[in-house]
Amino acid sequence: MTAIGKYPSGLTSLFLVEMWERFSYYGMRAILVLYLIDAIANGGLGLATSEAVAIYGIYTAAVYILALPGGWISDRFWGARRAIIVGAVIIIIGHVLLAIAGSNEMTFMLGLASIAVGTGLLKPNISSMVGELYDSDDIGGRDAGFSFFYMGINVGAILGGFVAGYLGETWGWHWGFGAAAVAMFAGLVNFIYAGQRALRGKGEPPKPHHHPNADTARSDHLISGILVVAAIAVMAALTFTGWINLRSAEGIAEAMGVLIVTVAIGFFLNIYAAGDLTAEEKRRMIVLAILFVAAAIFWSRFEQAGSSLSIFAAEMTDRQFGSFEVPASWFQNLNPAFIILLTPVIASFWIFAQNRKWEISVFVKFGLALILVGLGFLLLVPAAQIASTGGKVSFLFLFGTFLIHTLAELLLSPVGLSTFSRLAPKRFVSQMMGFWFLAASLGSLMAGLLATGMDTSSPASMPDLFSRLFWGSLFPGVALILIARPLTRWALGGSEHLKPTPETD
User: Fold this and answer.
1) How do residues 111-159 score in pLDDT, each as one tens digit?
2) Does domain 13-205 have CATH number 3.40.50.300?
3) End-to-end distance of the chain based on CA atoms, in angstroms?
4) Options 3.40.30.10, 3.30.750.24, 1.20.1250.20, 3.40.190.10; which CATH number does 277-505 get?
5) What sections of the protein cross the membrane (predicted)?
């Protein structure tokens, strides 16, 4: 533990790496669409808005999809430490390519692809290294540590949005992308330095795992092959039958959603059926699959911040303070600001609860998160009804919604990271962290499709949309809380404190 006592010494180093990586990611993301639609004469690519949004959606989804192969490479070959270093270098190269791309579309696409590949290598593996800092039975400490680590994400998000966003819009796009490259370089230097000290012995290459017999190995290869062929067949059938239309941004989003679901199911079944798991590990995998679905539902609601809530802020909220009109985009900074303020409180509560031997099931935490994110939308229903008559409502409605959503996020996201790192079979930890991030990718796509399915440009449609989002969160949240005790008894032996086995030590 550190001198400030409560957290392992390596956690601060991983916090800083994640902070700088998120600075680079969110800083670049803040100006990406603006750069894409800006005129070629101004250094942009001059794309149509619909095309720019489609590229943005495909990119953000690809980042999380690539977390699966990134975790696989770590678990099978490199180990988390090497995967993080290689990923960081590729991210830096990608940002540099964006900085020098100007109006060269090929250079830009290569840079964007590099960032996606690099993030896929870095993102799941740095989370798995946080998990390595804790004993498998230290539930409260692990949840608190991931909450602290999660705060680094949001510090980086705020800094990146302000710094890279300001430089990109004011000085030129290449300055914004260049700032993101510098931030990632700072994170890489910090990680290499920490690897020689606080993180020594963590994230090492995996020990070879051998199947107990040739029949199991053949079964592994056969099931893997069948799942790959099935995934290709599903995508091909949907494309040829016209269920997927790749000629529109919405169609591309639907195709990405089908791809993510197909990959998620295939990945899960591959490990479950061909991963040489014990009966206890298979039950834990069922738990993680249920949490995956719950997380996807949660993110489909939470990520409305960039669609329906953004429209609500711009069109229906009174943003005038004296002679100054608050930009609608600034409301999205409420979430990371609340994260930074509330994380120490939530982290302290997890340790407090563990010290008093309070067992709060992960299903209860996820269920409460879903209920809270729904309540955030319920708060907006009367506000949207008022706005639908032509008036504008107080900013306090959005302030309250973002506060409630942040509490929900802190109950789900860092807890999910902690739980996946703890319950996943040891030799598949990094891959299962990639599986967790896949839920965020699916949820983000679902968020866009939910908003697209409603006429969000019309104030009259907003009350109905917010009501649907509330009920669609309330029911699964209550269901999770109701099944918490029987599911914990069946899958985890009645307690989330794991027995010390070679797989969980």
Assistant:
1) 888 988 999 899 888 888 888 888 777 777 787 888 888 787 888 888 8
2) no
3) 19
4) 1.20.1250.20
5) 23-41, 53-72, 84-102, 147-167, 173-193, 222-246, 252-273, 285-302, 334-353, 360-381, 393-412, 433-453, 465-484
